[in-house]
């Protein structure tokens, strides 16, 4: 199991936002846990110094769409740590190669592939043709449907459009097996706990650990070293973990240095 670092950009600044509160119409409605004027590239250099790979930088949308400030900050990240970070946020066929050329190791895609509530296979195949399966990460961030009354692990559905809309794509063994033939990794946010430091979704981690045939990173709710160990245990060592708001470098109480030390102890 690995610790996967992250950098979230909003209006060109490094922030930690509760993703489920983010919309494209009201920036002020978003719950912001952390914000800094520190250059985004500084965080990338820190991750490079600590030999952390497979992290991601996400360009979060604002009411003005994807501002140039976000793009510039993202380019700083990729220049600071070439081939060390994946990039997501508004990625599609027309700009995928641009971000690869800028230094991304992978592109991360959600809404361009999951459109109108279903998988758009034509768009997915376009991206594979452009950047190659080995450079594509599919974001399967998901939540339970409100009318779900069962407690099985088959109730999670991929969400799009700032996690406000459900698709008909269920996160289960069949979906993971099929999509794995088109991408290199999965990124999965547990939407209902993301940014809330309230603990991980154990059943989702267990599902990913049991059924994902390719590397998968879980994000959402992690707040302690105990949560890291739980992800390692419940995910059978196959699920990597992203931690955001809980880290002291993002205003939280969990020491970044302790997390890096734990990571190195598992991946020496």
UniProtKB/TrEMBL annotation:
<protein>
    <recommendedName>
        <fullName>1-(5-phosphoribosyl)-5-[(5-phosphoribosylamino)methylideneamino]imidazole-4-carboxamideisomerase</fullName>
        <ecNumber>5.3.1.16</ecNumber>
    </recommendedName>
</protein>
<comment type="pathway">
    <text>Amino-acid biosynthesis; L-histidine biosynthesis; L-histidine from 5-phospho-alpha-D-ribose 1-diphosphate: step 4/9.</text>
</comment>
<dbReference type="GO" id="GO:0005737">
    <property type="term" value="C:cytoplasm"/>
</dbReference>
<keyword id="KW-0368">Histidine biosynthesis</keyword>
<dbReference type="Pfam" id="PF00977">
    <property type="entry name" value="His_biosynth"/>
</dbReference>
<dbReference type="GO" id="GO:0000105">
    <property type="term" value="P:L-histidine biosynthetic process"/>
</dbReference>
<dbReference type="GO" id="GO:0003949">
    <property type="term" value="F:1-(5-phosphoribosyl)-5-[(5-phosphoribosylamino)methylideneamino]imidazole-4-carboxamide isomerase activity"/>
</dbReference>
<dbReference type="InterPro" id="IPR011858">
    <property type="entry name" value="His6/HISN3"/>
</dbReference>
<keyword id="KW-0028">Amino-acid biosynthesis</keyword>
<comment type="similarity">
    <text>Belongs to the HisA/HisF family.</text>
</comment>
<dbReference type="InterPro" id="IPR006062">
    <property type="entry name" value="His_biosynth"/>
</dbReference>
<dbReference type="InterPro" id="IPR044524">
    <property type="entry name" value="Isoase_HisA-like"/>
</dbReference>
<dbReference type="InterPro" id="IPR013785">
    <property type="entry name" value="Aldolase_TIM"/>
</dbReference>
<dbReference type="InterPro" id="IPR011060">
    <property type="entry name" value="RibuloseP-bd_barrel"/>
</dbReference>
<keyword id="KW-0413">Isomerase</keyword>
<dbReference type="GO" id="GO:0000162">
    <property type="term" value="P:L-tryptophan biosynthetic process"/>
</dbReference>
């Amino acid at each position: 199991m690995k610790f996967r670092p992250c950098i979230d950009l909003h209006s060109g600044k490094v922030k930690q936002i509760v993703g489920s509160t983010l919309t494209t119409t009201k920036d002020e409605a978003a719950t912001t846990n952390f914000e800094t004027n520190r250059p985004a590239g500084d965080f990338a250099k820190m991750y490079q110094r600590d030999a952390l790979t497979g992290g991601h930088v996400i360009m979060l949308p604002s009411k003005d769409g994807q501002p140039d400030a976000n793009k510039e900050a993202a380019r700083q990240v990729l220049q600071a740590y070439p081939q060390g970070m994946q990039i997501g946020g508004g990625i599609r066929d027309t700009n995928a190669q641009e971000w690869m050329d800028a230094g991304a190791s992978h592109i991360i895609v959600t809404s361009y592939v999951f459109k109108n509530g279903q998988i758009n296979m034509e768009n997915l195949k376009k991206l594979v043709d452009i950047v190659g399966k080995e450079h594509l990460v599919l974001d399967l961030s998901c939540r339970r449907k409100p009318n779900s009354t069962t407690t099985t692990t088959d109730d999670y559905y991929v969400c799009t459009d700032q996690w406000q809309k459900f698709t008909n794509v269920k996160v289960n063994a069949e979906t993971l097996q099929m999509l794995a033939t088109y991408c290199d990794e999965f990124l999965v946010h547990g939407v209902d706990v993301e940014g809330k430091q309230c603990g991980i979704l154990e059943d989702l981690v267990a599902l990913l650990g049991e059924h994902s045939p390719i590397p998968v990173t879980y994000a959402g709710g992690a707040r302690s070293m105990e949560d890291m160990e739980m992800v390692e245990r419940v995910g059978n060592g196959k699920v990597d973990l992203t931690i955001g708001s809980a880290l002291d470098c993002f205003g939280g109480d969990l020491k970044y240095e302790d997390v890096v030390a734990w990571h190195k102890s598992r991946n020496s």
